[in-house]
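Below is how a single chain appears once it has passed through the pipeline. First comes the sequence as given, then the structure the pipeline wrote out for it. We keep one example in the README because the format questions we get most often are answered faster by looking than by reading.
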Amino acid sequence: MKILYVEDEPFLGRIVKESLEVRDFEVRMVADGKLVLSVFEEFKPDICVLDIMLPNKDGYSIAQIIRQSNGSIPIIFVTAKTQTEDLLKGFEVGGNDYLRKPFSMEELIARVNNLLQLTQKLTSTSNQLFKIGTFEFVPQRYELRKNGTARKLSHREAMLLHILAENQNMNIDRKTILMRVWGDDSFFNSRNLDVYITKLRDYLREDPAIEIITIKGVGYHFAVGN
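Resulting structure:
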């Protein structure tokens, strides 16, 4: 698997790059934000690990441009920023995960492997189509369709909606969702789940027969009327 790793701290970058390569990843490291997009096009990575604070072009801007050309590639932000608004901005521009510095290599590897596995699972669904009320959902294309109009979903939005679509009119355990989409059920990821549920509710609100009901202490019930 090929990783595009963007980091402008040479000492940290070298350690992370070598640690990934020891685990059989092919890694291309870039230190200057303005060079990332040309390397992305040439290298064609399977996943991107982006620092946010970079010279010439920040990680948010890079992620936005990558998302315009590739809606499915996993993107992990690595940053020293700790504010909630920074985290939310990362998800808004297309990030799939967020890792705060300092971090352990074990945690980075776990998050990389989890995202790659989720991507492979979505891809393996081929052209499977789910009917959700008046919507159609195509997991492989990351598309939620209604009346001929398609909304492009992020990787995590698509994974979460896939789980809901497989369990229409059934209760879904919150921990099960967290483990399948994020790989752990930490408080940090639990807050992320709340954000994504709110987004999906907004996307689906055009059909009043669809409701994502929160069941306190359990999880969610994805109610879809006929």
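The first helix runs from residue 10 to 22.

See the next section for the split statistics.
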